[in-house]
């Protein structure tokens, strides 16, 4: 399935035909988004991507011809913008997908508007995390591992969203606080961890058991 398009070109890689068709139908209603192809396996998706040059790939996390995160890594090696589209919301799945190169993480069953928003944000150079996932990560700080006394519960919540690739604005929206407050928390996290930037803060936090390491 191909067509001439001037909008955001999306390739769907999903092994369930009903899901592929349903998401395609939903996205075709968006004036600035065009589904240029669909595939059921990683190999088919990589071949389609090489031909169709999509702007964003909507990728099922678990496909029959690859280990769970191999698909993300395969497309990431081709410098593709990847939005994971999956039924799995475990913290470990989220972090491993992001480390493998995903720029967005959506749950199947997400509203059409959310799917479109994720595609637009990732295409625009931002990250996107489903609000349900963000809320779950924040809730998880009530039982964090390791040296929890270093950071407050709110700081751990902010840090987990930083680790998931969210911007200060996205974190503010996820936590229903102001962006200025997020900046305050991020600065406090840097100071407490002895970090100079976000990537270093995440690495130091993982070493100290404040974030999942796998």
Short description:
The protein has helices spanning about 15-25, 40-50, 70-75, 90-100, 110-125, 130-140, 155-165, 170-175, 180-195, 200-205, and strands at about 10-15, 35-40, 55-60, 80-85, 105, 130.
Secondary structure: elements and pairs:
Blueprint (H helix, E strand, L loop, with lengths): L7 E6 L3 H11 L5 E7 L2 H11 L3 E4 L10 H8 L3 E6 L4 H10 L3 E4 L4 H12 L4 E2 L1 H9 L13 H11 L4 H8 L3 H15 L4 H10 L7
Parallel strand pairs: 1-2, 1-3, 3-4, 4-5, 5-6
Helix pairs in contact: 6-7, 7-9, 7-10, 8-9, 9-10
Characterization of this structure:
This protein is of the alpha/beta class and 214 residues long. It has ten helices and six strands; from the N terminus they run βαβαβαβαβαβααααα. It has helices spanning 17-27, 42-52, 70-77, 91-100, 112-123, 131-139, 153-163, 168-175, 179-193, 198-207; strands at residues 8-13, 33-39, 56-59, 81-86, 104-107, 128-129. Strands 2-1-3-4-5-6 form a six-stranded parallel β-sheet, sandwiched between helices. β5, α5 (112-123) and β6 (128-129) form a beta-alpha-beta unit. α6 (131-139) packs across α7 (153-163) and α8 (168-175) crosses α9. The longest helix has 15 residues, at 179-193.
């Amino acid at each position: 399935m191909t067509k001439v398009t001037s909008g955001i070109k999306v390739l769907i890689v999903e092994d369930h035909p009903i899901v592929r068709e349903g998401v395609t139908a939903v996205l075709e209603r968006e004036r600035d988004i065009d589904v240029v192809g669909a595939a059921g396996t990683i190999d088919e998706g990589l071949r389609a991507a090489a031909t169709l040059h999509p702007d964003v790939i909507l990728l099922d996390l678990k496909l029959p011809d690859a280990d769970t995160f191999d698909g993300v890594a395969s497309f990431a090696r081709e410098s593709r913008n990847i939005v994971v589209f999956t039924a799995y919301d475990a913290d470990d799945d989220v972090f491993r997908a992001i480390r493998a190169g995903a720029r967005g993480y959506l749950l199947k069953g997400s509203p059409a508007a959310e799917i479109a928003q994720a595609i637009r944000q990732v295409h625009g150079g931002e990250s996107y995390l489903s609000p349900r996932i963000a809320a779950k990560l924040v809730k998880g700080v009530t039982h964090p591992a390791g040296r929890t006394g270093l950071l407050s519960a709110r700081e751990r919540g902010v840090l987990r969203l930083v680790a998931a690739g969210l911007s200060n604005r996205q974190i503010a929206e996820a936590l229903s606080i102001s962006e200025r407050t997020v900046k305050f928390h991020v600065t406090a996290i840097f100071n407490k961890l002895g970090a100079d930037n976000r990537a270093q803060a995440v690495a130091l936090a993982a070493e100290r058991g404040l974030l999942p390491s796998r």
